[in-house]
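Possible regression after last week's pipeline update?

I re-ran a chain I had predicted before the update to compare outputs. Posting the input and the new output here so someone can diff against the archived version. Not blocking, just want to make sure nothing changed silently.
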Amino acid sequence: MTAAALALVPDDTAVDTDQIQVGDIDTNTHTDVEALCLCALLWAPSEAAARAVAALEAEDFERPIHRELFTVIARLVRAGKPHDTTMVAAELERTGSLAGHHGSERSRYLANITTRGADHIAVDHYTRTVVSQAYRRSFRAAAQSLAQAAEQLPEDQLFEHMVALGRQQRAATNRLNHLRGEGQ
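New output (post-update):
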C-alpha cells in the first residue's frame, strides 16, 4: 500500500495560507458553537480548560481562525499559564500575529469571541459539540475522498484506501464515544 492510500486524495486547487478567511468575520458568533467553545475556554478555570484542551484538537475547528486561536489557548493551558483574552492577545503579539491588517482582524475577532457570553461552566458541553461537528465533517470528507479515489487512484489501491478511511472513521467514532462517556 502506498502513502497516497492513507491520506485523502489531494485536491489540485490552491490553498490559501492566510489564516483569516472572508467568511470568518461574517459569522454570527452568537450561535457558532466553535466561537462559544472558545469563549467558554477563555473564561474557564485552569482545571476545566485543561480537560477541554486534552479533549480537543485544532483540526476539530472548521474555521482557520478558530484553529489558530485554539492552538494559542491550548499552548498557554498546557504550559500552565493564564489563558484569558489578555494573555492570548499577548501571545499573538509576541509571535507577530497581531501585525498589520490581518493582525487587526485577529484582535477584533478575539474581542468578539471573548464577549459572546458563553458560560465557562458549559465548556465540557461545547467541547463535545465541537468534536461532534468535526466527526460529522469527517464523514463528508471520507465520502469525498472515496469519490475522488474512484476517479484518480489505481485499482490496486482503491480497497486499501477505503480500509484506511474506515479505520480513521472507527478511531473518530471511538474518540467521540469516549468523550461522551459511552462504553465505560
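Follow-up from reviewer: compared with the archived run. Helices lie at 22-26, 33-43, 46-55, 64-78, 85-94, 100-114, 123-152, 155-180. Marking as no regression found.
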